[in-house]
Amino acid sequence: MITSDLHTLSGAYALHALEDDERAAFEHHLADCEACAREVAEFTATAARLGLAVSLRPTPGGRDQVLRRIAEVRQATPARTPRDRRERRARRAWWASRWILAASLAATAALGGTTVWQYQRAEDARAEAGRSRHASAELSAVLAAPDARSRTVRLADGAEGTVVVSTSRDRAVFLAAGMAEPPGGKVYQLWFDEHGVMRDAGLMDPRRTSQAVVLRGTVDDASAMGITVEPAGGSKEPTSRPVALLPFPT
After folding, report:
1. Where is the chain membrane-spanning (predicted)?
2. Cα distance between residue 176 and residue 208, in whole Å
């Protein structure tokens, strides 16, 4: 499937209408496509609002009422006259309509719960898209700063890392190319090195081997940055030896 085809799947993805292989391909594409992420958020929010507009919540005690009513209704005595058969068919149709209505209400109530969940996912996606736009703006600002300075070093397994620092913006960016994925349940964590004292500078995306990351926080007195392997979610301080130390350019 070519990339242009993937852009057309955002609506079907939001409605859970993709086959497993299409969904996997689209989710891989979604990680790097802000436009599709925004469309998925909007489609999902719209579907959620439509569902909430028609959803009904079961009345309190509804189950007990149904069970009590079943116990009170006597089963009709079998009969064979045409008239009784017509009445029996009419009665079956009446009960069938009530069961269909009950099933519809139950399904609608379940749909209401599903759409609430979908709406929350949409809001999460919208917030993530907002954070992505903010990070992209920060990244561009640092790289385009007139005083931006860079330094590139070789990392393990042939990978390459570049750190870019802007004194005027007091920010730094790390560009990784070809880094190995961290072990399962682990993540690469970035640190500001302030005269041997490590300060948390954020996490890298463990699913991507090449990426650009704006270090969290200002540079201040840091003269270098470090990278360690930490448990998923990161650590308050390094728990392993740095896999790389990159002195800041002067």
Report:
1. 95-117
2. 9
Statement to judge: residues 85 and 105 lie in one domain: yes
- Whole-number Å distance between alpha carbons of 219 and 209: 25
Residue 247 φ then ψ, to 5°: -60, 140
Same-domain status, 81 and 21 = yes
pLDDT digits (tens, 9 = 90+) for 132-143: 566 677 887 888
Backbone region of residue 163 per phi and psi (left: phi > 0; alpha: psi in -120 to 50; beta: other values): beta
Specify whether 121 is located in the same domain as 180: no
Same domain, 176 and 83: no
Return the closest-CA partner of residue 172 out of 195, 193, 197, 196: 193
Does the pLDDT of residue 60 top 50, yes or no? yes
How far apart are alpha carbons 171 and 134 in whole angstroms? 14
112 with 12, same domain: the answer is: yes
* Amino acid making up residue 98: R
User: Do 183 and 239 fall within a single domain?
Assistant: yes
pLDDT tens-digit series, residues 127-168 = 555 555 666 778 878 888 889 999 989 988 888 999 999 999
pTM: 0.51
Q: Which two tokens stand for residue 186?
A: 């682990």
Q: How far apart are CA 130 and CA 139, in angstroms?
A: 14
The pair of three-digit structure tokens given for residue 103, joined into one six-digit string: 């099933």
Range of the domain at 82: 1-144
DSSP 243: S
Q: Quick one: 205 and 129 in the same domain?
A: no
